[in-house]
Amino acid sequence: MRIRWHGHACFEIEGSVKIVTDPHDGKSLGIPAPSVKADLVLVSHDHFDHNFIKGVEGADTSVLTMPIMTVEKGVRVEGIPASHDSEGGSKRGKITMFRFELDGTSFCHLGDLGHELDESQVEKISPVDVLFVPVGDVFTIGPEAAHRVIEKVKPKVAIPMHYRVPGLGLSIQPVQNFLRLCDQRRIVKMGNEVEFTGDELPSDGTDVWVFSK
After folding, report:
1. What is the DSSP string of the chain?
2. pLDDT of residue 45
C-alpha cells in the first residue's frame, strides 16, 4: 500500500483502488496541483482548497461529499459529521470526516476539523490505523488541539496535514509547532510518499509520519 501527499489536505492512498482526499487545484494555494486520477474521491467540505474534483476525476470515479455509510469501489466508507469551527459550524460551516477501510487497513481523514472531538465522534472513528489530522490552526484546530485529538483516538500512525509550506498562500502554522509536542522518538520523516503493509505499522503507541514536498 502507498500513501502520497499532494500538499495541504490532499492525499493519495493506493492499494487495490486509488483514493484521493480533499483535492485542490494548486494555483489557488501557490503549490503544485495533484497529478493523479482517482477511483474514489473523498471531499470533506465545499471550499476551494479541498473540492477540486475535476482535477483528479477519471472516467469511472466515484465521489463522496456527505455523511454516509456505504461501500464504494469495494471500500467501506463512513462519513462522520463535524464542524469547520468551534461554534457548531456557524462561522465556517460543516465538514465530513471520512473513515474508510482499504485492504485490511483503516484510515480516517479529519478534513478541516475546527474543534476537538466529542466522545461519540471518537467512538465512530476508533479503532483506526492511520489518522490524517490538521495542525495548522486559523482555519482548523491547531497544534495543541491536534495533539489531544491524537491522544483520544490513539491511531497507530498520525499524519499531520494542512500546515504552512513554502509557497502556500494561507497564513497557517508550520508543522514544526505541532512536532514540538510529539515524542521525538516517534517522528518519522517520509518525503512525499511511503509504501507499507498493515503488519509493519506499530503495535503500541503512535508514530507520527511527516510528509514533505
Report:
1. -EEEE-STT-EEEESSSEEEES---STTTTSPPP---EEEEE-SSSSTTT--GGGTEEEEEEEE-SS-EEEETTEEEEEEEEESSSSTTTTT-EEEEEEEEETTEEEEE--S--S---HHHHHHH-S-SEEEEE---SSS--HHHHHHHHHHH--SEEEEES-B-TT--S---BTHHHHTTS-GGGEEEEETEEE--GGGS-SSS-EEEEE--
2. 86
